[in-house]
């Protein structure tokens, strides 16, 4: 496959883990990266990775903060938007012990925030050719998977999958690709050291997948390896 021409990539949740590594990979190949982070102190020193990475503060749980982020990007075509921010939903997610506030917060960040950010940047996406929206969800949100526990995380990711599927149908006529993607079980602060793959493996696979996605694949659920995942 030919090397893609330089593009503008917006990555939300870019201060650590998969988001941070994807920033590095895109900048390494010459793309302009706008990295959305909750606070700049979290990425002090990270800017040394590349002059092509521009950090901007955005709290995806705050419509006001997302609105300010939208204003800052006004007039900037966005080729790729990656919604990478996510939370686990608290330690208490069991039948006999549920943290309901953490569950609500999980829906705010894992489900509502990707919709909020994407709709805020629709004009930017429409200004690009063949724009793509990728939201990192999880196979734990697949109704096809039978497993127990983690109610907050699973339900918020299942809802995010549906949100992206509906959005894909509504934006297909405008040529915008929208897909939820399972990044794998990754050795991050969230995934833990016992996970299957490294951040580098996941991020590299995701970049390759995103390059290959076309309108023919929009609205479908994918894995970091480029395999379609059952809903």
From TrEMBL:
Q: Which residues form the signal peptide?
A: none
Lineage, top-rank taxon, reads: Bacteria
* UniProt protein name: SDR family oxidoreductase
Species of the source: Phenylobacterium ferrooxidans
């Amino acid at each position: 496959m030919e090397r893609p021409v330089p593009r503008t990539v917006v990555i939300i949740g870019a201060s650590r883990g998969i988001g941070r590594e994807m920033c590095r990979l895109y900048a390494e190949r010459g793309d302009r990266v706008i990295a959305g982070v909750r606070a700049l102190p979290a990425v002090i020193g990270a800017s040394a990775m590349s002059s092509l990475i521009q950090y901007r503060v955005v709290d995806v749980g705050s419509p006001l903060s997302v609105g300010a982020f939208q204003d800052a990007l006004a007039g900037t075509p966005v080729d790729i938007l990656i919604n990478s921010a996510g939370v686990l939903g608290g330690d208490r997610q069991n039948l006999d012990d549920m943290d309901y506030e953490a569950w609500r917060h999980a829906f705010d960040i894992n489900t509502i925030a990707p919709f909020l950010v994407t709709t805020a940047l629709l004009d930017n996406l429409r200004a690009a050719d063949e724009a793509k929206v990728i939201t990192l969800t999880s196979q734990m949100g697949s109704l096809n998977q039978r497993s127990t526990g983690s109610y907050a995380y699973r339900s918020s990711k299942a809802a995010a999958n549906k949100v992206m599927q509906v959005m894909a149908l509504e934006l297909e006529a405008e040529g915008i690709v929208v897909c939820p993607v399972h990044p794998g079980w990754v050795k991050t602060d969230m995934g833990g050291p016992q996970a299957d793959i490294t951040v580098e493996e996941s991020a590299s696979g995701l970049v390759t997948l995103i390059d290959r996605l076309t309108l023919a694949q929009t609205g479908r659920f994918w894995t970091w390896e480029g395999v379609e995942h059952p809903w």
